[in-house]
Write a structure and sequence with these properties.
Blueprint lengths: L1 H7 L4 H21 L5 H19 L7 H20 L8 H30 L6 H25 L1
Helix pairs in contact: 1-2, 1-3, 2-3, 3-4, 4-5, 5-6
Length: about 150
C-alpha cells in the first residue's frame, strides 16, 4: 500500500513514504511492545499516507482504493489477532480456522463493497441520489452478510 501511494505522486513520494514509514514503524512498535492502544493510530497514520497521495494526485477516482482499503483492514485484523495470541491460553485449532475464515470473508466482503462504491463513483451517470441510495443499500447488505457469516462461524 505504501509503495502504491508513493508511486502515484512522484514529486511528493518522499513525503508520502516518510508518513507511511512512520506508520509502519509504529505498527512494529505496537506488535513488539504489545501496545494495543496504539494500533488504531498506526493504521490511521498509514491511511493518512494514502490520503496525502490522493489529495496531491487530484480529484480523479482511484481505482486502487478498494485494494488499499482491504489491505488496511487485513493489516489491522491480523495485528489485533497477533496481539490476542500473546496470552498463554492457546486457542483450539477449530477456533483459529473459523476466525481465519471469518477474517477472509470480512476482507472479501469489504473489497466487494469498496469495488461497488468505486464503480458507482466512476460511472458516467455522474452519481446522484439514486446511486447514493443504491450504494447505501449495498453497504448495508454487505455488513449484514458479514454479520451473518460471523454469527454462523461463532
Amino acid at each position: 500500500m505504501l509503495a502504491y501511494a508513493a508511486a502515484r505522486v512522484p514529486p511528493f513520494a518522499a513525503l508520502v513514504a516518510a508518513i507511511g514509514v512512520f506508520g509502519a514503524l509504529l505498527l512494529v512498535f505496537v506488535l513488539v511492545r504489545h501496545a494495543d492502544d496504539l494500533l488504531p493510530w498506526a493504521l490511521a497514520v498509514l491511511a493518512v499516507a494514502y490520503a496525502v497521495s490522493l489529495f496531491v494526485h487530484g480529484s480523479a477516482v482511484d481505482e486502487g482504493a478498494p485494494l488499499v482499503a482491504a489491505g488496511l483492514l487485513l493489516c489491522g485484523e491480523l495485528a489485533a489477532w497477533s496481539l490476542d495470541e500473546r496470552h498463554a491460553i492457546a486457542a483450539e485449532r477449530d477456533v483459529v480456522l473459523r476466525r481465519g475464515l471469518a477474517l477472509g470473508a470480512l476482507v472479501l466482503a469489504g473489497l466487494g463493497a469498496a469495488v461497488a462504491v468505486i464503480a458507482f463513483a466512476a460511472s458516467p451517470a455522474g452519481g446522484g441520489l439514486a446511486w447514493t441510495a443504491l450504494g447505501a443499500v449495498a453497504a448495508v447488505l454487505v455488513v449484514g452478510t458479514v454479520a451473518e457469516l460471523v454469527r454462523r462461524t461463532a
